[in-house]
Amino acid sequence: MTQHTTTRDGLSVRGVGKSFGSGGRAVSVLRDVDLEIADGEFVAVVGPSGSGKSTLLNAIAGFVEPDDGEILVNGEPVRGPGPSRCVVFQEYAIFPWLSVRKNIDFGTRLRAWRGSKQERARVTARYLDMMGLADFADALPKTLSGGMRQRVAIARAYAVDPEILLMDEPFAALDAQTREQMQEALVDINQRERRTVLFVTHQVEEAIFLADRVVVMSARPATVQEIVDVPWGDRRTHEIKTDPDFVRLRRRIETLLRSSAH
Ligand SMILES: Nc1ncnc2c1ncn2[C@@H]1O[C@H](COP(=O)(O)OP(=O)(O)O)[C@@H](O)[C@H]1O
Ligand SMILES: [Mg+2]
């Protein structure tokens, strides 16, 4: 299929299984995982620690090859890493030798759409602005706080404009206050840009706050235990975290997670 006829259908994970090791020491990590994410949807994945969330994300990224099943991005089977998927990790995966601006510019160079140098500079400036990085454009990452560095990683990932953004606990290393600010920054950029996002976290509150749907994984071997719809649409301010409906949803998911852990 050529770029022109490809419509963005999103992500399909069908019957995916994965074990590590072999023989008697093989550990089954994913079992029969099915998941459909529509174009423009923000889906969070929660599950017990060590259940296989990162393995699932890495399989979608193309870093890990499943033993069973298939993964399709816009109808195209995933056969390895590629520009249709962009990953934001917990560790700051940005280039330490490039300024903030150049890190984001690197993202704009990976776009399927390649504009002129001036157009790219405009796109980069827009992302700097959106993530509150304009004042730090010429700074090197090592001079920035952890939160600011994650802003750079997220801005760069959005600048690439991939079919799907994969985020593996990107805020896990941040303090609580910075984490809340980052959640708001992510809501903000995503409401403007509307990308397809798969966001892994073990914090249920974060999952509900960010996502349109929350996928609850079981303990290892991980399989989809339940998919919960989040009814707040674009209403994503921190006040909703104390809304009785929010608290009820959080408790329900936490109970599901506890019941699956062994
Ligand atoms: N490359 C690998 N080789 C062997 N075991 C692995 C590998 N990657 C992950 N595992 C194992 O798979 C299980 C799930 O890991 P992971 O997907 O990182 O879980 P989570 O992200 O949910 O914490 C763990 O028991 C981990 O030790
Ligand atoms: Mg993980």
From TrEMBL:
Keyword hit for Cytoplasm: no
Pfam family, one: ABC_tran
Keyword terms: ATP-binding, Nucleotide-binding, Transport
Gene3D superfamilies xrefs: P-loop containing nucleotide triphosphate hydrolases
InterPro entries listed in its UniProt record: AAA+_ATPase, ABC_transporter-like_ATP-bd, ABC_transporter-like_CS, ABC_transporter_ATP-bind, P-loop_NTPase
GO terms for MF: ATP binding; ATP hydrolysis activity
Protein name: ABC transporter ATP-binding protein
